[in-house]
Amino acid sequence: MAEQRMPTGTSIERLPLIGVVLAGGLSTRMGRDKALLHWQGRPLLEHQMAVLHAAGVCEVKVSGDRPDYHGVVDPVPQAGPIGGIAGIAAACDDAELLIVPVDMPRLQPALLQRLREAASAVGCVRFAGHVLPMRLRLDARCRDVLNTLVASSDRRARSLRSLQERIGVHEIVLSGDEATQLIDCNTEETWREAST
Questions:
Q1: Under 8 Å between Cβ of 126 and 164
Q2: Total structural domains in the chain?
């Protein structure tokens, strides 16, 4: 789907922009804490926080039990990224959330700025073929959907894709070079690949 322009005269309330690093996972496939892997001389979590700041956010929140980073503990343990986002939602007022996973080290600020600046009247903006990173409009509707998904006993229903489809999603096309920034490092093999 091509980028859309907002129709003339359409008014969408501007909300504060908050960066979010999803860092509450168990890192079971990696076998060690991904957030603390060193990337360019510092923990990957700190790198992702810096990328968000460079993309133009003033505040960054960390999801997960990360006391050293004022992390927001998931309200429902092991509910995946939906649980992390639900925790952040409970800890802040309505906002535009620029959400990145902790395990995407090649991500660059300019790419996140494309998400930040994309005009869209729907609740979520993401890159074509990828659920993360994303810009999420945290409002009453989004909170209702998050609460429904977190409460679901069906683990498959608690997915980012379900959230995005329920609140409406706008996709931005990526170039081949941009797509290489979205490698996520879930295993030692992908970590080595990203590091070379």
A1: yes
A2: 1
